[in-house]
Fold this sequence. Notes:
By secondary structure, this protein is α+β, with helices and mostly antiparallel strands. The protein folds into 2 domains: 3-66, lambda repressor-like DNA-binding domains (434 Repressor (Amino-terminal Domain), Orthogonal Bundle), CATH 1.10.260.40; 91-199, no CATH class. The protein has 8 helices and 5 strands. The protein has helices at residues 3-16, 21-28, 32-40, 47-57, 61-66, 77-121, 126-153, 170-174; strands spanning 156-158, 165-166, 178-179, 182-186, 193-199. The protein is elongated and about 75 Å long. The protein starts with a helix and ends with a strand. The relative contact order is 0.09. Bound molecules: zinc ion. Residues 159, 161-162, 164, 187, 189-190, 192 line the site of zinc ion.
Amino acid sequence: MDQIKIGKFLQERRKECGLTQSELAEKLYVSDRAISKWENGNCLPDADHMVELCDILGITINDLFMGEVMPKDFVNTELEASLVAMTKLKQQADKRLLGIEIVLGVFSTVLLFTGILIAGLVAMPLWARILVGVGAWILFFVGIAFAIRIEQKAGYYQCPDCGHKYVPNYSSVLFAMHVNRTRYMKCPHCGKHGWHKKVID
Ligand SMILES: [Zn+2]
């Protein structure tokens, strides 16, 4: 794999699509620096962003790895097999992460209520009561913040209008109204607001 060639190719395609580095970065929820690293051939786009990047630039995964537009009937079986394997691994890891999210959420909630009960019912000086109460709330928020972080990173959210799948940034997940893992957010592809479901693949 020729990373320099791939980088040049990505840069060409980006320019042909009329996008600046920061416009592309915004679409993919990555930093401008990440884009310039890819284009300089310092590193390859990570698996998380590869499919979406190809989509935006109008190329195939094969084109990306070869650093040029390949004929339609060109099949790189080795590459395709490793991509399928990579996707499967990511799906398994995401499922595991979302399982951890539930445990973390439940654990934080139980901890909070236990803390409030202890602070309210057990005989202790006022300062200790306040300490236990405030401590329980702090641990609760830390636990929930981690859980939301996991939810943001694992899998994708899917727009019900255009079917676009994406990984949103942390604050848009944090501040979105939600019912379980379905969140009310703005689609980066079609721009419509809607209830976006969590999907693994
Ligand atoms: Zn959409």
